[in-house]
Design brief:
The structure is a homodimer.
Chain A: E1 12-16, H1 20-30, E2 35-40, H2 43-53, E3 57-60, H3 68-79, E4 90-95, H4 100-109, E5 113-116, H5 121-132, E6 137-138, H6 140-150, H7 160-163, H8 167-177, H9 182-189, H10 193-207, H11 212-220
Chain B binds a DNA duplex through helix 8 and helix 10.
DNA sequence: GTGACCATCGGGGATGACCCCGGGCCGACC
DNA sequence: GGTCGGCCCGGGGTCATCCCCGATGGTCAC
């Protein structure tokens, strides 16, 4: 984790957090070693600012008014010039939350790291440098279950949420998402309707969804059909 | 395809393409026979320019920053004075793409022709004249599947199945297809659940579907969301 | 062996989805 | 005036969905 990687020029950092005081604190900590080129407290404002300032690293809060951290990531990606993907900024999530859902959502959206706000100033600087150099950085407690979820596949995220499901549950999920009734799924998989119910319940619980319609939508933007 | 249709004055042409060099090339080819009254490299700029210069024909690229060819079509149509529809320009799509989706989208938006950029200068002039005279012009390979897609209905493709539904039924359909429960739809449309049931029943009957899942699938491959 | 997890199935119940029937109000058309 | 269709509601019923509880076996690890 040496911080001297042959990079001469100051790192340019963009700050996204909905609390002005927190941004001021981060700026104070970073100011002497890296350059804070801009900041934003809301998602669309962040996208515009990042595209305009072209920073090396974006420090990104997970919970934001206007769409949250993942929305900023996808927004920047969409707005970034396609012929200039190499210069796209790296994203480092910086959040109070250590909830699995929060971590997974920003990592899946493309963040290269995730540290909690309990981090110290020096560590934060080091984390920013490592992310800028292409490394992935995680707070100690988070690293474990992120690796579990991705089972060793960092570059291609696979799907941690899908991996929570057993083989049978995924099978049932596919049929439900296609619109079959429980009875039809039971007939196709040679099961009783009750077993299908059990699997569907497990899937809904694990994915934190409330009914089969949300499940269909969930499966759709994941192209699981 | 005679080019002398009694038109004495030069044709006035507007050029929309995001590549300046390509616009220069077209201008060079057309310049001696028709008058290029303006050009634009981006959608909103194009709409403003077209409305201001009132050309006879617009040469329109399909892929543009700011919304693409169809956006220009609809933008000009919206901005054009309603009492002067007769003088509205004809649109001729001019694109590198020969993909079905691209062709269909601009034709449905109202373009009167579609030629690929492999066309020669003389042919392009002829195509512009024919479009100005009200003809439809297509590159040979494209003409076939355009006719297939519209199966003879050039002016308004419409959707016969969707037209069976009343306005209220279509409204309910959209909500159901998004996954809302009857109760939620009722709340959003200020109706009783019973009324929602009635409309859903009517929709299912008219479209010959058997449940809301099939309805969701039906709405999806029709892009009604 | 004991526990943990998985797959399979069941009872029972609350709610949603979907259907049948009926009614009333209103505007358009004849 | 009468008729028709769109729109709004209701009662009442069947089946689907989704949850709670429970049970049985199998596999694998410790």
């Amino acid at each position: 984790m040496s911080e001297a990687n042959g990079r001469e020029t100051n790192l340019r950092v963009f700050l996204v957090d909905d609390h002005g005081l927190f941004r001021a604190g981060v700026r104070a900590e970073l100011g002497t070693t890296v350059e804070v080129v801009g900041e934003a407290g809301e998602a669309s404002e962040a996208v515009a600012g990042i595209v305009a300032t072209r920073p090396d690293v974006v420090l990104l809060d997970v919970h934001l008014p206007g769409g949250g951290g993942p929305a900023v990531l996808t927004g920047v990606r969409a707005a970034w010039p396609a012929d200039d993907a190499a210069s796209a900024p790296r994203f480092l999530a910086l959040s109070v939350s250590d909830a699995a859902d929060d971590v997974i959502s920003v990592i899946r959206a493309g963040a290269r790291g995730y540290v909690t706000k309990t981090i110290g100033g020096a560590e934060l600087v080091a984390a920013v440098r490592r992310v800028a150099d292409g490394d992935a950085v995680f707070s100690p407690r988070l690293a474990g279950f992120v690796l579990d979820a991705f089972s060793g596949a960092l570059p291609v995220p696979a799907d941690p949420e899908l991996d929570q499901l057993t083989a049978r549950e995924k099978e049932v999920l596919r049929h439900i998402a296609r619109g079959y009734t429980y009875k039809e799924v039971a007939a196709r998989l040679y099961l009783s309707v009750k077993t299908v119910e059990t699997h569907v319940s497990a899937v809904l619980r694990k994915l934190q969804l409330s009914n089969r319609h949300e499940l269909t939508a969930w499966a759709n933007d994941r192209r699981l059909l």
